Amino acid sequence: MLVALLIVPSFAGKRRPKERPPDGFQEMVVQAVVPVPNGAVVVLSDKSQANVLHMVVGPTEGRTIFLRHERRTFQRPLTHDLFDEIMGFVHAEVVEVRIDDIRSDTFVARVTVQTKRRKRHTIDARASDSIAMALGRGLPIYIANHVIAKMAVRPEDQVLPLEDAPDSDDPRDAL
User: What's the pTM?
Assistant: First the structure.
């Protein structure tokens, strides 16, 4: 007997109900992924755009974040898509993403995974992977207030005005 398996991209689901950010954190969203030599800059802001962060990532990470932000897929699963599928098969899910520190100009993140028995595990992660996972699952991205205070970019220092962010139909054009 031949059984067909339908694999639905992880971001096809609905966004979770609105939660309040944990104490000491703000919710931020990806505004743009801007290509730069040797990578990309992920532009994050709070909803009012009063606080804006620029996070430099590699070209592969930039492409993944761009694709997930735009809710696009490749024909074959990329690494984060594979991770999402594995999590589903072991009955676990990513439930929270936090960027909670900055060390030597590197953003430090934590991802919280919950098992089907509601047991939670917090795992050290790269900020770029955390952002990609949050976008894929429709989760908020929480960033610690002290990280925002240290790394916020003044409006005149923006890499790209938010209204001029690339909106190409082909993700290969962006990165």
Answer: 0.79
